[in-house]
Amino acid sequence: xxxxxxxFVNGFHDEESxxxxxxxxxxxxxxxxSKISLGTGTLSKFYGDLDAxxxxxxxxQALRKGINYVDTAPYYGQGRSEEILGQALKDVPRQxxxxxxxxxxxxxxxxxxxxxxxxxxxESVEKSLKLLGVDYLDVVQIHxxxxxxxxxxxxxxxxxTLEKLRDEGKxxxxxxxxxxxxxxxxxxxxxxxxxxTVLCYCRNTLIDDSLKEYIPFFExxxxxxxxxxxHGLGLLTNAGPQPWHPCQDxxxxxxxxxxxxxxxxxxxxxxxx
Length: 273
Known about the structure:
- This is L-galactose dehydrogenase.
- One of its GO terms (molecular function) is L-galactose dehydrogenase activity.
- Pfam families: Aldo_ket_red (PF00248).
- It comes from Culex pipiens.
- Residues 35-273 form the NADP-dependent oxidoreductase domain.
- The chain has nine helices and nine strands.
- Strand 3, helix 2 and strand 4 (69-71) form a beta-alpha-beta unit.
- The radius of gyration is 18 Å and the shape is globular.
- The longest helix is centred in the last third of the chain and has 17 residues, at 249-265.
- The chain is of the alpha/beta class and 273 residues long.
- 36% of the residues are buried.
- The protein has helices at 15-20, 52-64, 80-89, 118-132, 152-167, 181-189, 211-220, 249-265, 269-272; strands at residues 23-25, 32-34, 38-39, 69-71, 98-103, 137-142, 171-177, 197-201, 224-228.
- It folds into two domains: 15-230, TIM Barrel (Alpha-Beta Barrel), CATH 3.20.20.100; 234-273, no CATH class.
């Protein structure tokens, strides 16, 4: 690219790699975000055990090479992801990255997993700030809104609390995430102009490209679109998915056959996907 992004820091970044990275306008936020971002669910134990030192090294490598958007959540390792990411970010200039976290989903046991109340939302943001070691969060997303019993809680408690925290300078932009695309649309329609970003996952892959149908709606609402889990939570990789993966056995079988073929050819399925 001819012009370096505003997140470029001389002496920290590998300039050659940064110039090779593609950066896109992030909805109406004014941010210029790398096409590839870094998800940190792997800093928890979602995909097997990963020691903190390896995780920190991976974060540093990604940021130096030009990735400038990092996503985490309290639910990832029940704070472990945010904690390790915070350790990594101590050695990174604040200008060099945008950090996004979430509210609403927390514990492993279902009875305590979700809480979209105003009180818990504020507590969660304050805790994330401490764990990440930052003065403000670039993006805070409402996590997996399909699990709230009544969507009015999102509109009347979670969202207003995030807006207050934004006014206090503790966060800059507000987003929403979910797996069902129709739920995402419903939440956004119910709060016109109040969301800045939308995150969906596993919806722009070789086995599910349903995101495409909703892109015009998201763009019409000037939302930054974050497409997570481009490999279908491990389905479209040579390593394959974790035992907890929720998809149907037939889909797993098809993807396993594809990965075995790629292994025989010396190719990583994830690169093709």
